[in-house]
Write a structure and sequence with these properties.
17 helices, mainly alpha, single chain
Length: 331
Protein backbone atom coordinates (compact mmCIF):
# COMPACT_ATOMS: atom_id res chain seq x y z
CA UNK A 1 0.00 0.00 0.00
CA UNK A 2 1.45 3.39 -1.00
CA UNK A 3 1.96 6.21 1.48
CA UNK A 4 -0.65 8.32 -0.32
CA UNK A 5 -3.35 5.66 0.04
CA UNK A 6 -2.51 5.10 3.70
CA UNK A 7 -2.66 8.81 4.49
CA UNK A 8 -5.91 9.30 2.55
CA UNK A 9 -7.46 6.32 4.36
CA UNK A 10 -6.32 7.81 7.66
CA UNK A 11 -8.08 11.09 6.93
CA UNK A 12 -11.32 9.31 6.04
CA UNK A 13 -11.20 7.46 9.36
CA UNK A 14 -11.04 10.73 11.33
CA UNK A 15 -14.29 12.64 10.65
CA UNK A 16 -13.34 15.28 13.22
CA UNK A 17 -10.54 16.43 10.94
CA UNK A 18 -12.74 16.54 7.87
CA UNK A 19 -15.17 18.81 9.74
CA UNK A 20 -12.74 21.27 11.25
CA UNK A 21 -10.36 21.75 8.30
CA UNK A 22 -13.29 23.07 6.28
CA UNK A 23 -13.80 25.91 8.74
CA UNK A 24 -11.72 28.99 9.40
CA UNK A 25 -10.14 27.68 12.60
CA UNK A 26 -6.78 28.15 14.27
CA UNK A 27 -6.43 24.37 14.62
CA UNK A 28 -6.11 24.01 10.84
CA UNK A 29 -3.29 26.54 10.68
CA UNK A 30 -1.61 25.03 13.73
CA UNK A 31 -1.74 21.61 12.02
CA UNK A 32 0.17 23.02 9.04
CA UNK A 33 2.71 24.72 11.29
CA UNK A 34 3.37 21.66 13.46
CA UNK A 35 3.86 19.40 10.45
CA UNK A 36 6.14 22.03 8.90
CA UNK A 37 8.12 22.24 12.14
CA UNK A 38 8.54 18.46 12.21
CA UNK A 39 9.78 18.36 8.61
CA UNK A 40 12.17 21.28 9.19
CA UNK A 41 13.79 19.83 12.32
CA UNK A 42 14.05 16.47 10.54
CA UNK A 43 15.81 18.14 7.59
CA UNK A 44 18.17 20.01 9.89
CA UNK A 45 19.15 16.82 11.69
CA UNK A 46 19.81 15.19 8.31
CA UNK A 47 22.18 17.79 6.86
CA UNK A 48 22.82 20.32 9.70
CA UNK A 49 22.16 23.36 7.50
CA UNK A 50 21.49 26.27 9.83
CA UNK A 51 18.62 27.79 7.86
CA UNK A 52 16.43 24.73 8.53
CA UNK A 53 16.86 25.21 12.27
CA UNK A 54 16.14 28.92 11.98
CA UNK A 55 12.95 28.21 10.03
CA UNK A 56 12.00 25.54 12.58
CA UNK A 57 12.14 28.03 15.44
CA UNK A 58 10.44 30.70 13.35
CA UNK A 59 7.56 28.29 12.63
CA UNK A 60 7.31 27.54 16.37
CA UNK A 61 6.97 31.28 16.98
CA UNK A 62 4.14 31.41 14.46
CA UNK A 63 2.50 28.41 16.13
CA UNK A 64 2.36 30.07 19.55
CA UNK A 65 0.90 33.19 17.95
CA UNK A 66 -1.72 30.92 16.38
CA UNK A 67 -2.65 28.86 19.45
CA UNK A 68 -1.60 29.58 23.06
CA UNK A 69 -1.30 25.84 23.69
CA UNK A 70 2.29 26.13 22.43
CA UNK A 71 3.26 28.68 25.08
CA UNK A 72 5.25 26.18 27.17
CA UNK A 73 6.90 24.36 24.29
CA UNK A 74 9.89 26.66 24.64
CA UNK A 75 10.99 24.56 27.64
CA UNK A 76 11.45 21.18 25.89
CA UNK A 77 12.70 22.98 22.79
CA UNK A 78 15.36 24.78 24.84
CA UNK A 79 16.44 21.55 26.55
CA UNK A 80 16.68 19.79 23.20
CA UNK A 81 18.69 22.70 21.81
CA UNK A 82 21.12 22.50 24.73
CA UNK A 83 21.66 18.83 23.89
CA UNK A 84 22.26 19.69 20.21
CA UNK A 85 24.65 22.46 21.27
CA UNK A 86 26.59 19.97 23.37
CA UNK A 87 26.74 17.49 20.49
CA UNK A 88 27.42 19.78 17.52
CA UNK A 89 29.17 22.72 19.24
CA UNK A 90 27.33 25.39 17.23
CA UNK A 91 26.23 28.43 19.23
CA UNK A 92 23.52 29.37 16.72
CA UNK A 93 21.55 26.31 17.89
CA UNK A 94 20.98 27.87 21.30
CA UNK A 95 20.49 31.36 19.85
CA UNK A 96 17.69 30.24 17.53
CA UNK A 97 15.93 28.41 20.38
CA UNK A 98 15.50 31.75 22.16
CA UNK A 99 13.14 33.03 19.44
CA UNK A 100 10.12 31.24 20.93
CA UNK A 101 10.50 32.43 24.56
CA UNK A 102 11.30 35.93 23.26
CA UNK A 103 8.03 36.07 21.31
CA UNK A 104 6.11 34.74 24.31
CA UNK A 105 7.77 37.23 26.65
CA UNK A 106 7.16 40.21 24.37
CA UNK A 107 3.50 39.31 23.86
CA UNK A 108 3.03 38.79 27.60
CA UNK A 109 4.62 42.19 28.23
CA UNK A 110 2.29 43.71 25.66
CA UNK A 111 -0.66 42.21 27.57
CA UNK A 112 0.77 43.54 30.82
CA UNK A 113 0.92 47.07 29.42
CA UNK A 114 -2.66 46.69 28.19
CA UNK A 115 -4.35 44.89 31.10
CA UNK A 116 -1.93 45.21 34.00
CA UNK A 117 -1.56 41.42 34.23
CA UNK A 118 1.52 39.64 32.88
CA UNK A 119 0.15 36.66 30.96
CA UNK A 120 0.41 35.28 27.47
CA UNK A 121 -3.29 34.50 27.08
CA UNK A 122 -6.42 34.54 29.21
CA UNK A 123 -7.21 31.06 27.89
CA UNK A 124 -4.85 29.69 30.53
CA UNK A 125 -7.12 30.96 33.31
CA UNK A 126 -10.20 29.68 31.51
CA UNK A 127 -8.71 26.21 31.01
CA UNK A 128 -7.58 25.96 34.64
CA UNK A 129 -11.07 26.78 35.83
CA UNK A 130 -13.15 24.82 33.32
CA UNK A 131 -11.00 21.89 32.15
CA UNK A 132 -8.53 21.27 34.96
CA UNK A 133 -10.40 22.11 38.15
CA UNK A 134 -13.71 21.48 36.38
CA UNK A 135 -12.76 17.90 35.58
CA UNK A 136 -12.25 17.16 39.28
CA UNK A 137 -15.63 18.57 40.31
CA UNK A 138 -17.35 16.84 37.42
CA UNK A 139 -15.80 13.52 38.46
CA UNK A 140 -16.64 13.91 42.15
CA UNK A 141 -20.13 15.32 41.54
CA UNK A 142 -21.52 15.76 38.01
CA UNK A 143 -21.41 18.15 35.05
CA UNK A 144 -24.19 20.34 36.43
CA UNK A 145 -22.36 20.81 39.73
CA UNK A 146 -19.21 21.71 37.82
CA UNK A 147 -21.06 24.39 35.86
CA UNK A 148 -22.60 25.82 39.04
CA UNK A 149 -19.19 25.93 40.71
CA UNK A 150 -17.70 27.73 37.72
CA UNK A 151 -20.52 30.27 37.57
CA UNK A 152 -20.23 30.94 41.32
CA UNK A 153 -16.51 31.67 41.05
CA UNK A 154 -16.99 33.87 37.99
CA UNK A 155 -19.68 35.80 39.87
CA UNK A 156 -17.40 36.25 42.89
CA UNK A 157 -14.58 37.47 40.66
CA UNK A 158 -16.69 40.46 39.62
CA UNK A 159 -16.03 42.00 43.02
CA UNK A 160 -12.52 42.77 41.76
CA UNK A 161 -12.47 45.83 39.59
CA UNK A 162 -8.98 45.29 38.15
CA UNK A 163 -8.50 42.67 35.44
CA UNK A 164 -5.25 41.47 36.99
CA UNK A 165 -6.79 40.93 40.41
CA UNK A 166 -9.77 39.16 38.87
CA UNK A 167 -7.54 36.83 36.84
CA UNK A 168 -5.34 36.07 39.83
CA UNK A 169 -8.42 35.23 41.89
CA UNK A 170 -9.77 32.85 39.24
CA UNK A 171 -6.41 31.10 38.91
CA UNK A 172 -6.03 30.71 42.68
CA UNK A 173 -9.52 29.27 43.02
CA UNK A 174 -8.87 26.77 40.24
CA UNK A 175 -5.48 25.78 41.67
CA UNK A 176 -6.95 25.29 45.14
CA UNK A 177 -9.28 22.61 43.76
CA UNK A 178 -6.38 20.87 42.01
CA UNK A 179 -4.09 21.07 45.07
CA UNK A 180 -6.85 19.59 47.19
CA UNK A 181 -7.07 16.49 44.98
CA UNK A 182 -3.58 16.01 43.44
CA UNK A 183 -3.79 12.22 42.95
CA UNK A 184 -7.23 12.41 41.39
CA UNK A 185 -6.07 15.20 39.11
CA UNK A 186 -3.07 13.14 37.93
CA UNK A 187 -5.44 10.28 37.14
CA UNK A 188 -7.80 12.58 35.22
CA UNK A 189 -4.89 14.17 33.35
CA UNK A 190 -3.56 10.76 32.32
CA UNK A 191 -7.05 9.65 31.31
CA UNK A 192 -7.38 12.81 29.22
CA UNK A 193 -4.14 11.99 27.41
CA UNK A 194 -5.39 8.48 26.60
CA UNK A 195 -8.70 9.95 25.50
CA UNK A 196 -6.82 12.36 23.24
CA UNK A 197 -5.13 9.46 21.47
CA UNK A 198 -8.00 6.98 21.27
CA UNK A 199 -11.32 8.86 21.47
CA UNK A 200 -13.23 8.68 18.15
CA UNK A 201 -14.93 12.06 18.66
CA UNK A 202 -18.50 11.03 19.33
CA UNK A 203 -20.16 14.45 19.01
CA UNK A 204 -18.29 15.27 15.82
CA UNK A 205 -19.24 11.90 14.33
CA UNK A 206 -22.90 12.72 15.04
CA UNK A 207 -22.48 16.02 13.20
CA UNK A 208 -20.54 14.54 10.29
CA UNK A 209 -22.99 11.70 9.62
CA UNK A 210 -26.05 13.72 10.72
CA UNK A 211 -26.96 11.15 13.36
CA UNK A 212 -29.62 12.48 15.72
CA UNK A 213 -29.27 11.66 19.40
CA UNK A 214 -31.88 12.46 22.03
CA UNK A 215 -29.38 12.41 24.90
CA UNK A 216 -25.73 13.39 25.15
CA UNK A 217 -24.23 10.10 26.33
CA UNK A 218 -20.54 9.21 26.67
CA UNK A 219 -19.57 5.55 27.02
CA UNK A 220 -16.56 6.16 29.26
CA UNK A 221 -18.51 8.55 31.48
CA UNK A 222 -21.35 6.04 31.91
CA UNK A 223 -18.88 3.24 32.72
CA UNK A 224 -17.19 5.42 35.33
CA UNK A 225 -20.48 6.31 36.98
CA UNK A 226 -22.40 3.04 36.62
CA UNK A 227 -19.70 0.39 36.44
CA UNK A 228 -18.58 -1.55 33.36
CA UNK A 229 -21.59 -3.84 32.80
CA UNK A 230 -24.29 -1.33 33.75
CA UNK A 231 -22.58 1.49 31.87
CA UNK A 232 -22.18 -0.64 28.73
CA UNK A 233 -25.81 -1.77 28.91
CA UNK A 234 -27.11 1.77 29.45
CA UNK A 235 -25.03 3.04 26.52
CA UNK A 236 -26.23 0.27 24.18
CA UNK A 237 -29.90 0.92 25.03
CA UNK A 238 -29.75 4.71 24.62
CA UNK A 239 -27.48 5.22 21.60
CA UNK A 240 -28.31 4.66 17.93
CA UNK A 241 -26.85 1.48 16.45
CA UNK A 242 -25.22 3.29 13.46
CA UNK A 243 -23.41 5.61 15.89
CA UNK A 244 -22.21 2.66 17.99
CA UNK A 245 -20.87 0.85 14.91
CA UNK A 246 -19.20 3.95 13.47
CA UNK A 247 -17.66 4.89 16.80
CA UNK A 248 -16.39 1.34 17.29
CA UNK A 249 -14.63 1.21 13.90
CA UNK A 250 -13.01 4.64 14.37
CA UNK A 251 -11.92 3.65 17.88
CA UNK A 252 -10.29 0.52 16.44
CA UNK A 253 -8.58 2.66 13.77
CA UNK A 254 -7.20 4.94 16.48
CA UNK A 255 -5.68 1.93 18.23
CA UNK A 256 -4.10 0.77 14.97
CA UNK A 257 -2.79 4.27 14.24
CA UNK A 258 -1.21 4.50 17.68
CA UNK A 259 0.46 1.12 17.12
CA UNK A 260 1.89 2.42 13.84
CA UNK A 261 3.10 5.54 15.65
CA UNK A 262 4.73 3.39 18.33
CA UNK A 263 6.52 1.20 15.80
CA UNK A 264 7.62 4.22 13.76
CA UNK A 265 10.06 5.06 16.54
CA UNK A 266 11.88 1.79 15.73
CA UNK A 267 12.42 2.82 12.11
CA UNK A 268 16.02 2.69 10.92
CA UNK A 269 15.18 5.51 8.52
CA UNK A 270 15.12 7.95 11.44
CA UNK A 271 18.07 8.92 13.61
CA UNK A 272 17.85 9.00 17.39
CA UNK A 273 17.83 12.82 17.33
CA UNK A 274 14.98 12.85 14.81
CA UNK A 275 12.98 10.40 16.91
CA UNK A 276 13.61 12.51 20.02
CA UNK A 277 12.43 15.69 18.27
CA UNK A 278 9.27 14.00 16.96
CA UNK A 279 8.51 12.42 20.33
CA UNK A 280 9.05 15.79 22.04
CA UNK A 281 6.51 17.47 19.79
CA UNK A 282 3.92 14.68 19.99
CA UNK A 283 4.19 14.17 23.75
CA UNK A 284 3.95 17.90 24.45
CA UNK A 285 0.67 18.31 22.56
CA UNK A 286 -0.77 15.14 24.09
CA UNK A 287 0.21 16.26 27.59
CA UNK A 288 -1.03 19.82 27.04
CA UNK A 289 -4.48 18.48 26.11
CA UNK A 290 -5.02 17.98 29.85
CA UNK A 291 -7.96 16.20 31.49
CA UNK A 292 -10.27 17.25 28.65
CA UNK A 293 -8.39 15.39 25.95
CA UNK A 294 -11.18 15.89 23.45
CA UNK A 295 -10.77 14.27 20.03
CA UNK A 296 -11.00 17.65 18.31
CA UNK A 297 -7.81 18.69 20.12
CA UNK A 298 -6.07 16.06 17.98
CA UNK A 299 -6.76 17.99 14.77
CA UNK A 300 -3.50 19.93 15.04
CA UNK A 301 -1.45 16.76 15.60
CA UNK A 302 -3.24 14.35 13.28
CA UNK A 303 -1.15 15.23 10.19
CA UNK A 304 1.95 14.35 12.22
CA UNK A 305 0.45 10.94 13.00
CA UNK A 306 -0.22 10.40 9.30
CA UNK A 307 3.29 11.58 8.41
CA UNK A 308 4.72 8.92 10.72
CA UNK A 309 2.34 6.23 9.45
CA UNK A 310 4.54 4.91 6.59
CA UNK A 311 7.51 4.57 8.96
CA UNK A 312 5.44 2.41 11.31
CA UNK A 313 4.04 0.33 8.45
CA UNK A 314 7.56 -0.23 7.11
CA UNK A 315 8.78 -1.46 10.50
CA UNK A 316 5.85 -3.87 10.84
CA UNK A 317 6.30 -5.17 7.27
CA UNK A 318 9.97 -5.90 7.93
CA UNK A 319 9.43 -7.23 11.44
CA UNK A 320 9.44 -10.83 10.22
CA UNK A 321 13.02 -10.28 8.99
CA UNK A 322 14.16 -8.96 12.35
CA UNK A 323 16.43 -11.31 14.26
CA UNK A 324 17.23 -11.11 17.93
CA UNK A 325 21.05 -11.03 18.16
CA UNK A 326 21.20 -13.42 21.15
CA UNK A 327 19.24 -16.05 19.24
CA UNK A 328 21.35 -15.94 16.10
CA UNK A 329 23.69 -18.87 15.51
CA UNK A 330 27.30 -18.06 16.05
CA UNK A 331 29.44 -18.68 13.01
Amino acid sequence: MSSGIMITSGLIMFPVYLILVNMVMAESLLAVLLLSALILIKRYLENHKWHYLLLFNFVLALSVLTKPVMMYFWIPNLLFSIYLLWKYRQIYILTFSLILPLVIGLWSYRNYKTTGFFEYSSIKTQNLLELNAGSIISFLENHDEMKQHREAILLSSKSYSEYGERSAYLMNEAKSVIYEHPVLYMYLHLKGMVNFLLAPGRIDIEIFFNIRQKNDISLLYEIEKRGFNNGLTYYAKNVNSPLIITTFFIFCWNIVLMLFLFFSFFSKKLTMEQKAAIFMLVFYIVFASGPGGYARFKVALFPVFLYMLPYGVDVIKNFRNYKIPLLQNKS
